Amino acid sequence: MASDPHSNGAGHDARPTFAQFAAIRRYQNTLAFSPDGDEIAYSVNISGQYNLWRQPSEGGYPHQVTLSGSQAVREVAWSPDGGSFLYTADNDGDEFTKIYQIPVRGGRSSEIAVQPQVQYSLQGWSPDGRYIAYSGNDREPTDQDVILRNTESGEVTRPMADGGLYSPAFWSPDNQHLLVVKAYSNTNTDLYVLDIDSGDARLITEHEGEVRYIPAGWSVDGSGFYVLSDEDREYTGLALYQLEDGSHEWVESPEGDVEDAVVSANGRWLVWSVNKDGYSRLFVRNMTGESEPVRINLPEGVLGTMTLSRSGDRLGVLWQQPTHPTELFIVDLATGEVNKITESFLGGLQESELTQPELIRYPTFDGKQIPAFVYRPKGVEGKIPVVLSIHGGPEAQERPQYLYSGLYQYLTSRGIAVLAPNIRGSNGYGKTYQKLIHHDWGGDELKDLEAAAQYLQAQDWVDPEKIAVYGGSFGGFATLSCISRLPGYWAAAVDIVGPSNLVTFAKAVPPTWRRMMAKWVGDPETEVDFLMSRSPVTYVDQITTPLFVVQGANDPRVVKPESDQIVERLRERGVDVRYDVYEDEGHGFTKRDNELKAMRDMAEFLEAHLAGAMG
Q1: Is pLDDT at 78 greater than 70 in this prediction?
Q2: CA atoms within 13 A on the CB side of 351
Q3: Residue 292 is part of which domain span?
Q4: What pLDDT is recorded for position 376?
Q5: How much of the chain, in percent, has pLDDT values that exceed 70?
Q6: pLDDT digits over 581-598, tens only?
């Protein structure tokens, strides 16, 4: 291997520490403008936990609104009168979200919906402030009702509580109707229009097969609404639905998913984002035709979320790049001016020294070409180690972002490459590709991962004896599948909150997920043999790879016994396995100190097993 380009030649390691790469501020995907657009609210972990903050839209000092060390703020809405916030928060990562109201300037929160062992999700106020709309599974754990709270009387009603999984989405401009999403699966939804006065809900997207309908906002006159849908399409497009006759016309239908869209209350602006090869492309249309199209000059990256001010002229965007963590940008749509109002990179690193990923495609067993991002160290010659990183979901997508507290960038600074594929089941490549994972966990996607290992072994820059595998959630399951069912490829493995037994996993998921499990993964009552044939724990005797398992004790999605059982079996056999349990975390990390320790430990584990033995 060539000499280390980061060494000063005097025996002192001048390379940045992992803490420098991880010295970032992280945001939840929620934004809300004040009614006048002069301030914007968000949830960020500046304090060491995800608390609610507000900041002038022009930039300047942010002000902390909530002051919790255990509660993570997940969603926020700003009241129409500008005086208060609604927000959801859970404790220690348990995902039992409660709804609170707090004055904009801070103070004591009041409780809106706080039943224990319940998940509430927030829509927000009606435009006139008369109602608060939210959803919750407090009536029946397996259902999710639409709930309305009258802000004047305090009366709570449930206009949609018939056993479905409902989520309120957008209020009509006249306050008379509410768009509601009914979910059947990740790839199948319906839309209803709820009449507030009568309580009647009208299905407006009756369809056959699996089609997604995700509303994006009403037209200014309330005669229709914008919707993201893959109806009769492989990719998600943007359409305008008319209420009167149920017709719709495509506004944008690109060869790539429209991943998000927002429309201004005054009808002037329509903004949408297209996912192209993992990168986000923002587009703006002036619906009045009074000016030339606006071009938003953001750096190449990925959209987290976006929102428009009520006046419509300001766009707030959470945006992430592979060499820079999430930042909040404010865009003046009238001029196209872009202003970054946050600074989230705190470790003193130079972006120019970090690694830009290369998008490649490698062949798999059935002729498909699997997209993947490759992060290769700069200035390093010879054969080097590689980490195969597997995303979660599984219907998520590996995208060019500053991931895992800078883990990819740290590894490349240590001479270790990363290959991060979008195996079948990933979204962003059409619904046919996405649905290939349904009822096939541990099936053909595992062959895609073996093809990734074989691709790496064939590269002249890869050390074939130094390939590790890493992943969280579904990626953790896939990691365990790799080391148990494809045991010959791996020098080390890291599993974060990954299922090890598909039968026990499917039985223990959150109640609102249970109706989906038979079609998504398999029926844990009638398909035990099938599920066990796909479960890593079945093949535990084949595991010899050094393994690091990380688990949150409060994880409601992949419960702690999923990690317990495989660790216990491995320890009985004397296999080298490290098991770290975080008692005050769930499916991921909300506390800054925990996240830094866990990610640093995992980085050092991979480095010790890969770069540690290199000359």
Answers
A1: yes
A2: 10
A3: 254-344
A4: 97
A5: 97
A6: 999 999 999 999 999 999
Token pair, residue 84, equals: 């208060």
pLDDT for 525 equals: 97
260 and 232 in one domain?
Answer: no
Shared-domain flag, residues 192 and 220: yes
Q: Measure Cα distances from 590 to 2, 453, 507, 584 in Å.
A: 40, 33, 26, 9
Distance (Å, whole) CA 351 – CA 24: 13
Of 344, 368, 391, which residue is a domain's last?
Answer: 344
440-456 per-position pLDDT tens digit: 999 999 999 999 999 99
533: number of Cβ within 10 Å: 14
Same domain flag for 157 and 263:
no
SS3 285: strand
Q: What is residue 517's DSSP assignment?
A: H
Neighbours of 79 (CB within 10 A): 20
Distance from C-alpha of 481 to C-alpha of 548, rounded to nearest angstrom: 14
φ and ψ at 311, to 5 degrees? -70, -25
Give all strands of the β-sheet with 156-160 in edge-to-edge order. Answer: 120-125, 131-136, 145-150, 156-160
- Examine the domain organization and report whether 246 and 262 are in the same domain: no
Return all residues near 129 (Cβ < 8 A) that are at least 6 apart: 79, 80, 81, 151
CATH number at residue 49: 2.120.10.30
φ/ψ region of 11 (left if φ > 0, alpha if ψ in -120 to 50, else beta) reads left
Q: Element (H or E) spanning 158, and its range?
A: strand 156-160
Q: Residue 72 falls within a domain, yes or no?
A: yes
Same domain for 461 and 321, yes or no, is: no
pLDDT tens sequence across 484-496: 999 999 999 999 9
Place of tokens 């079945």: 538
pLDDT score of 267: 87
Q: How many CB atoms lie within 10 A of CB 69?
A: 10
**β-bridge pairing 492-496 and 462-472:** parallel
User: C-alpha distances in angstroms, 1 versus 192, 215, 382?
Assistant: 62, 54, 5
Is the same domain home to 262 and 355? no
Handedness of CA 256, 260, 266, 269 (dihedral sign): negative
Residues belonging to the chain: 615
Give the C-alpha separation, 100 to 88, whole Å. 6
Note the maximum CA span of the chain.
79
Structure tokens at 554: 């409060």
**Do 403 and 489 fall into the same domain?**
yes
Sheet holding 27-33, edge to edge: 27-33, 39-44, 51-56, 63-64
Sign of the torsion angle spanned by Cα atoms 213, 216, 219, 223: positive
> Which of 545, 550, 562, 418 lies closest to 493 in space, CA to CA?
545
Give the whole-angstrom CA distance, residue 165 versus residue 167.
7
The whole-angstrom separation of Cα 484 and Cα 501 is 12
pLDDT tens string 24-40: 999 999 999 999 999 99
CATH number of the domain encompassing residue 590: 3.40.50.1820
d(C-alpha 37, C-alpha 53), whole Å:
15
Last residue of a domain, one of 291, 322, 344: 344
CB distance 356 to 336 below 8 Å = no
Give the chain's domain count: 3
The proportion of the chain whose per-residue pLDDT surpasses 90, expressed as a percent, equals: 91
Q: How many helices (H) and strands (E) does the chain have?
A: 10, 35
